[in-house]
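Example 3.2
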Amino acid sequence: MTDTAIEKSALAVRPVRRRPLSRNKTFRRFLPWMVVFGIFFLWQAAVAGFRIEEFVLPSPTSIFAAMWEFRGPLLVSAGQTFMTTAIGFACAIVVGLAAGVAVGSSSMIYAAVYPALIGFNTIPKVAVVPILIIWFGVGSSPAIITSFLLSFFPILVNVATGIATVEPELQDVMRALGANRWQVIKKVGLPRSMPFFFASLKVAITVAFIGSIVAETVGGNKGIGSFMLVASSRFEVPLAFAALLVTSMMGIIMYTITSTVEKRMTGWATRGPNGAISVAAG
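Structure, written as tokens:
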């Protein structure tokens, strides 16, 4: 047998290396759904196995049944909560980004306003909601303001951190090229703070929904918070859980949108599944 034939036979019997599951795109795409399905399966099995009463912990099947039965009122309430949360979250992005740039670019502004911001953020927002209701009345305004107050601080802190931690060498190079202070912030500081900014958005969007629902629960006449309060007062526990599930779905949708925009804008700072830094194309 010739050397060429031996090489061909060796290649024929060489085992094909399979790609690990951690790098399989199809597996990674369906993995979150598998986890969610597993959670619901274990939940259903626990309720059935331990014979837990519905008014204590309803099963996923009864929750989905209540969600389908009351889909109309749920959609209306969810739309109200989504609107108030989106408005408060958008205001928090604008104000938090502007304030973060100001605080992060000036040590004097940082020293002047940061203690006051920390003190204000320490105040429980549940205690602020009744005051907001006195000022603005029952309706959407307290929910929007509470959503803004909860989501504003994480954005400010992360943007300020991103700008304040710009390497001094980069600032020196920009100044040597004739850039003024604003140009340094625009060309170096803002791009440097974008990963921090989008990380804060992922946190802020979850607490923004919490703010809206808390305000609706305390003094609202519309929205998911008010809907859950009414369902709980009637001991319709599956319906209250259905409202919670709808809220989590809205949070996942907003989180996914934020994550998609982040990948488009900060792909250069995203690590791939194998730990290497991936660079966005285009």
